[in-house]
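SAMPLE LOG
Freezer: B-3
Tube label: C17
Construct: single chain, 532 aa
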Amino acid sequence: MTDFLIYDAKVAVLIAIFYMYYRLMLARETFHRVNRLTLLLTAAASFVLPLCVITLHETVTVEAVPKVLVGDVQMEVATDPEPQLWQLLLPTLFIIGVVVTLGHTLTSMFRILMLIKRSEKHPQPDGITICVTGNDQIQPFSWMHYIVMNRRDYEDGNPAILAHERGHIRLRHSWDLLLVDTLTALQWFNPAMWMLRQDLRAIHEYEADGAVLSQGINARQYQYLLISKAAGIGGYSLANGISHSTLKNRINMMLHKKSERRSLLKLFALLPIVGIALAVNAEKVIDVRYDEPQEQKAKNVVYGTWTPQSETNSETRDTVKIKLSYDSIPDQSYTAVGTFEPVQGDVFDVVEEMPQYPGGPQALFKFLSENVKYPAEAEKAGIQGRVIATFVVEKDGSISQPTVVKSVNPLLDAEAIRVISAMPNWIPGKQNGKVVRVKYTVPLSFNLDGGGEEIDHLCREDGTIVEIDIEKGDTAIVKPLFIVDGKVMDGRKVYSINPKTIERYYMQNGQEAIEKYGDKAKDGVVLITLKK
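STRUCTURE (predicted):
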């Protein structure tokens, strides 16, 4: 038991060092996914590194094998010394602390399971089950694939609450808490472990808040919701719910400017910490080599090189033959034949990291403005309008499946498809850290003489526009951010602009617009270029 306590003390030191690194280097950054992984991986590494013993060998040469005379050997019976008081007291205290901490975790799990069992269950299409309890003091929380809420919140159907808890479930935060609570039981005496646990729960809330805001929910209204829900009954250590203790930090994090990518270079500071930990735990072993020849067994060793070559069947393109030959066996070869069937995978509408045009939205707007050519026949016939097209950004960034979802005229539709097909490769989208296929929507406006009809439809007198949801067929009145020739302009002034002075305009929606222009772009951004 003493050896285990020494090991656990080494773990405690490493956890404290890694946690101080996190607080000094990463705690103020907005890379919530990176911060979460850093806390989890450093906590796990603290338990693994003391077990990684690097052995340094030193060879010592002696002239001959030492010999011992029989008369020089004396046999003694060794007796174990009596254990001291601290050797009995420390293991006992440690075991008591482990039992109490694990008991608290198991009690919390039991309470959650009993609450779920007694609640009214409502399975959802996405595999999540909403559990409705009759206790109005219970505030919404999630555990595994369950969302628990009181009946009043369920009947209100607040989308922000459901989006928040679904974010916890989608990101598998419950598994993080199970892991950290288990490790905390072995480190119950370590203040750094408890602070790490608290910071991890805060990061969970930051990620869930980000999932809510990414769906276009108003940030200020959401913050008021958090304040109103923070005073309810909690006490479930394994559940993710609205907590008053992290509320101020969460609101500040929503308002915090996103960290720059170069801040990720701070992660390299982990390397010397790991290196020093391995060096401190290294052991030195002395190998004795004698001058007298040692008898060794002979070994039969065959050396050779492997040279892979590929041969392609010219008649069947989908079949590839691979021939493996060995220099040491020139007269023998093996051939494997297989058929390759490409699997593209599902297409996502919304992902955590949406695809981006190289250089950003301004570069995309520039590409479209420079490459869209007004069809001569359409120009003669006075045909104009706004074509909305979709396409798929593949895993390698290439563009596929360009499709017109809102048609104006076959001539304009064909030009939109041509320009989209001519776009260079994009930066592909990612979901859960993996590159995936994502569908993207782009509006292309074809206007004659400044596009008077389109600009009248685009902006109303009060600076609002009519937004059309192509998939649902719904319309909504929104107030976007207008940028004219690179400068922000009030929508009421945009309404007064002479349509004939407008050369082109382009609208950008979604999370990408918010990331670039802030919350004022939550209803989209309209980029307008005036004629020179």
